[in-house]
Amino acid sequence: MRIVSSTRRRRKVLALIGLLLVLFVFATARLFLWPPSNTPTAANAVVSLSGPWQHQANAALSLAHQGYSKIVVVSLGNNNRDLCPPAPPLIQVICFRPNPVDTRGEAEFVARLAARRHWRKIIVVPERSQTTRARLLFERCTGISMEFVPVQDPSSRVPYDLLYQWAALVKALVLKPSC
Predict the structure, then answer these.
(1) Which of 43, 51, 107, 153 could form a disulfide linkage to 141, CB 3.0–4.6 angstroms apart?
(2) What whole-number distance in Å separates Cα of residue 97 and Cα of residue 109?
């Protein structure tokens, strides 16, 4: 009788662990691999978040070329090698280094800039894995309408990005729950 009870308990624990693992995989996919994104429409500015590669800045400039905005705001992060991209004709490029050098610092800078310029809507261009957390932080820091148009993470970085984004999301939700 005791052996049967122990076996049932072990099966229940394994089933629970399996269920939690499946939920974790689905949450990871929804939050970081295929987060909600938007089809861009006209905005006051297109904001490029920083990253190890400047795919975001190129995408933001492309959106401006397509006519979504005449202003592109580029976060240079902490990489001193990244220079502000040249402004194409009829497009204003504003570059900045966030303080602190993270997504929260980027959201705080953009919130101040949007308030000074009376912007009502921006398009934010993060890496795909960063979109959920960027949306959370930008919504906390700004009171304006936003669309998120992510770029694909480099495939070689996806495992690292997933671990990093989980840790950073927990930090944003638990340790620093305000702007």
Answers:
(1) 107
(2) 9
- pLDDT tens digit string along 77-128? 887 666 888 889 999 999 999 999 999 999 999 999 999 999 999 999 999 9
Distances (CA, A) of 3 to 13, 14, 15, 21: 15, 16, 18, 27
Task: Report d(CA 176, CA 151) in Å as an integer.
Answer: 26
Residue type present at position 35: P
Main-chain phi, psi angles of 108, to 5 degrees: -65, -45
Distance CA 124, CA 46 (A): 6
pLDDT at 65 over 70: yes
